[in-house]
Design brief:
The complex is a heterodimer of chains A (291) and B (252).
Chain A lengths: L1 H31 L6 H18 L4 H24 L7 H23 L15 E3 L2 E3 L1 H23 L1 H11 L1 H6 L4 H27 L5 H16 L4 H21 L7 H13 L14
Antiparallel strand pairs in A: 1-2
Chain B lengths: L2 E10 L2 E11 L4 E5 L6 H8 L7 E6 L2 E2 L5 H7 L1 E3 L12 H8 L8 H6 L2 H21 L14 H13 L5 E5 L7 H16 L3 E5 L3 H7 L2 E6 L2 E6 L1 H6 L1 H8 L4
Parallel strand pairs in B: 3-8, 3-9, 6-7, 7-8
Antiparallel strand pairs in B: 1-2, 1-4, 4-5, 9-10
Helix pairs in contact in B: 3-5, 3-6, 5-6, 6-7
Classes of the chains: A mainly alpha (291), B alpha/beta (252).
């Protein structure tokens, strides 16, 4: 029972980071109407920035994290300007292919700049292991879970209670009506990508001490992000959180009780089960096509 | 003149939807555009509000050339509109819908919002108050926390008007506001439009419901096949031979 609890907490910790990444993926999906395949690789770039600032330059963590967020947001905005913007008026398939291309370019650029080996990332939040009964908790993991929960709450507040957040929601529900209310589509587009990249960076930094930093780290995490999005329901914010947490749990529990060899496969099994029973995702809404 | 449209022509391929139309509307005026189906009313409307750009011609609003401006800039200058097929933000509450309508007047941005500066909260409160006042104006205040998709049809139309009015526009464009309304609802609509006009806002309406049109408009412009065939007060239009022909067809 204690072991089970421990694994669950481990899973939720991983899952909260998947949830943050999926939220970033979903805000792009709902405001821009496109699947951002390169989300995992953006996270990888953010983790490398953090590695440079925190480890190589030895900056304190509270400087290193904001700096890497800023750098990564800039990288994202440059990509948006050069690669995505020329394609908005074209078919969505082209845009999807373009994001796959961006993902490849980012991965190879990272290999050129930082090399192909994997780097250890030191623990950000050191401290003694906490015992509660017979459950052992690592402070790092508790921090990650805490950061995840706080970010989800903040994002929810931002979307509901601020002008920019409301405008983003308005754009996702009805583009042309939003434009006629005076919402500048270009600003919202840039804010959407910026926020998504910022959240991806934070998740990357949090995950770095656990999974290490390497150029292809975005591949498997990116796949889990897309699985979380589909499981929870594409474009749904509560769905992203639920999907992320579920994928984290399934991965941790499967790794414990079945075998870690198939760690990457358990989320896919979850995906299959959900798709067979609820194709629109657990919290997704069925698309009703009006004639 | 608040809005002047000079020689507006809109072509879609070989089809001339709007043909060399001159048009002007003064502040505080209620103006209707009528015409048989396919006369180019909605196309003309879309040209004015910046949804489609005219093939040729020039549109001046409040002394500025807005012909090629994108819709969000036109909204900023003080022209807002509603839609024939109701475009609300379905998953938001009634109140939130109206708050989005006030987007251009909220003086916060991403940075101040992230830093939670005190004026962000002040602006937010002001925005809520303004939105509630506007909902009261159209009589939807009791529904403010409902999801907008759950409102009955006639109330959705009123909500669209509230959303368009909350930013304090100089010109309000209503695209078939009475479509699908019953008699009681359209009477309520007529009353609301009158009260909007009393606030000094010019109202431009495209509408098929003649009872509503004849009841409220100061002047009426009649389009047929993309051309203006008559313009004048309701009584003149009702007596106009060409208008009657356009609607009823020539006598054999």
């Amino acid at each position: 029972m204690n072991l089970f609890l421990q694994i669950c907490i481990q899973g939720l910790m991983l899952g909260s980071m998947y949830a943050i990444l999926t939220l970033g993926y979903n805000i792009i999906y709902s405001t821009m109407g496109m699947a951002h395949y390169a989300q995992g690789d953006i996270m990888m770039v953010g983790a490398f920035f953090a590695l440079d600032f925190f480890v190589t330059m030895d900056l304190p963590i509270y400087v290193a994290i904001p700096l890497s967020v800023i750098c990564n947001v800039l990288v994202m905005l440059v990509i948006e300007r050069l690669a995505y913007r020329p394609l908005y008026s074209r078919s969505r398939t082209l845009l999807l292919l373009c994001t796959i291309g961006v993902s490849t370019v980012l991965r190879n650029a990272a290999q050129l700049i930082w090399g192909t080996q994997s780097f250890n990332f030191p623990t950000i939040f050191p401290g003694d292991i906490i015992h509660i009964g017979e459950v052992y908790l690592v402070p790092q993991n508790l921090w990650i879970l805490g950061v995840g929960v706080v970010m989800m709450l903040l994002l929810n507040l931002f979307m509901k209670k601020t002008k920019v957040g409301r405008a983003m929601q308005a754009v996702s529900m009805n583009r042309s009506a939003a434009a006629l209310m005076g919402v500048n589509m270009q600003t919202i587009t840039m804010i959407t990508y910026g926020m998504s990249a910022g959240m991806a960076t934070l998740a990357g930094v949090m995950l770095a001490p656990i999974v290490k930093v390497y150029s292809t780290m975005g591949v498997s995490i990116g796949a889990k992000v897309m699985i979380s999005a589909v499981v929870g329901g594409m474009g749904s914010m509560p769905g992203a959180i639920l999907g992320g947490l579920l994928v984290g749990l399934v991965e941790a529990l499967g790794g414990m009780y079945i075998s870690t060899t198939f760690k990457e496969a358990y989320p896919v099994v979850l995906l299959l089960v959900v798709l067979l029973n609820r194709p629109q995702g657990i919290l997704g809404r069925k698309k009703v096509v009006k004639v | 003149m608040l809005l002047t449209a000079e020689k507006i022509t809109m072509k879609f391929g070989g089809l001339v939807a709007v043909d060399n139309v001159d048009f002007a509307i003064d502040s505080g005026e209620i103006r209707a555009i009528i015409g048989p189906n396919g006369a180019g009313k909605s196309t003309f409307f879309n040209a004015i509000s910046g949804q489609n750009y005219p093939t040729s011609g020039r549109i001046l609003f409040d002394g500025r050339d807005i012909t090629k401006l994108p819709s969000h800039r036109i909204a900023k200058l003080g022209m807002t509109r509603t839609f024939q097929n109701i475009l609300l933000f379905d998953d938001m509450t009634v109140l939130e819908n109206v708050m989005v309508g006030d987007h251009i007047n909220i003086k916060t941005n991403m940075l101040t919002e992230i830093l939670c500066l005190p004026h962000v909260f002040r602006e937010e409160r002001r925005c809520v108050e303004k939105a509630e006042e506007m909902l009261d104006f159209v009589g939807l205040l009791p529904y403010k926390d409902q999801r907008s998709a759950s409102l009955p049809y006639g109330k959705k139309r009123l909500l669209e008007i509230a959303r368009a009015m909350v930013s304090g526009p100089k010109l309000l464009l209503l695209d078939e506001p009475a479509a699908g309304m019953n008699a009681a609802e359209s009477a309520e609509l007529v009353d609301t439009i009158r009260r909007i006009s009393q606030r000094g806002v010019a109202v431009l309406i495209v509408e098929h419901n003649m009872k509503v049109i004849m009841n409220i408009s100061h002047r009426i412009t009649v389009l047929e096949q993309g051309k203006v065939i008559a313009e004048g007060e309701p009584a003149e239009i009702q007596a106009n031979e060409r208008v009657i022909q356009a609607y009823l067809g020539k006598e054999a």
